[in-house]
Design a protein that fits this description.
The protein is of the alpha/beta class and 242 residues long. It is 45% helix and 16% strand. Helix 9 links the parallel strand 8 and strand 9.
Length: 242
């Protein structure tokens, strides 16, 4: 499969050392690895990733420790952080994006940051050469081109409404949204939220430039803990190779 593939895991679940191991496994199959920064109120996440956030926080995972981990990781895959605006604000916008730059972080996804309120944040993202990834939801039809025209890195196209989690059905009209996006930008469009099978990966890759898989990996880690690496490798091979 020649389309792009993004994998997601939560930093610190079940430990930061295991996160390093999982990153190394996923790097062989992923163009981008999305790292969830643990937060106590991850409003865009379903039960699986919420629970991973709680486990990571309980283990003492902090933003500082996650940046230390990412500085020490050496992989070909690009690294992206998924977080929320409150942790970034508390950490300090300038310090956060400076640490992203110094940690080799390619982009940051902030689901609860409204497009109209990106100004101050994007100022620091640009200063430190970090992409602030644009998210577009199925309900954004009337705003698609406005949201897409200034996007950089890649566009995160949400496959369906609600929170993250494994799904069997997705919103209709995603192909039309991609067509609207492509009118104004060549930035890759990646479809995420709920993708968990090879068939879904193939289907969504026919619509867009690639896919994002998250909850399915986090579920494996919840089930197998420290012993997850082999299961992650088997699953990512199934997704990307078939």
């Amino acid at each position: 499969m020649n389309k792009r593939f993004i994998s997601f895991i939560t930093a610190g679940d079940p430990s930061l050392e295991k996160t390093r191991e999982f990153i190394n496994v996923l790097a062989s199959f992923s163009d981008v690895i999305e790292i969830g920064l643990p937060f106590s109120d991850p409003i865009a996440e379903g039960e699986v990733i919420q629970a991973a956030n709680m486990r990571a926080l309980k283990n003492g995972t902090t933003t500082v420790k996650v940046f230390e981990l990412l500085r020490s990781v050496s992989v070909c895959s690009k690294m992206v952080i998924l977080t929320y605006i409150n942790p970034v604000f508390v950490y300090g916008y300038e310090k956060f994006f400076k640490d992203c730059n110094e940690s080799g972080v390619y982009g940051v996804i902030i689901p609860d940051l409204p497009f109209e309120e990106r100004g101050e944040v994007i100022e620091f993202a640009k200063k430190y050469n970090v992409h602030l990834i644009t998210m577009i939801a199925p309900t954004s039809a009337k705003r698609v081109q406005m949201l897409a025209k200034d996007a950089t890195g890649f566009i995160y196209l949400v496959s369906s409404m609600g929170t993250t989690g494994v799904r069997s059905e997705f919103a209709v009209g995603l192909d039309d949204i991609v067509k609207q996006i492509k009118i104004v930008t060549d930035v890759p469009v990646m479809v995420g939220f709920g993708i968990s099978t090879h068939e879904q990966v193939v289907k969504m890759s026919e619509i867009a430039d690639g896919v994002i898989v998250g909850s399915a990996f986090v579920k494996i880690i919840a089930e197998h803990g420290d012993n997850s690496a082999l299961y992650i490798e088997k699953f990512v091979k199934e997704l990307t190779i078939g």
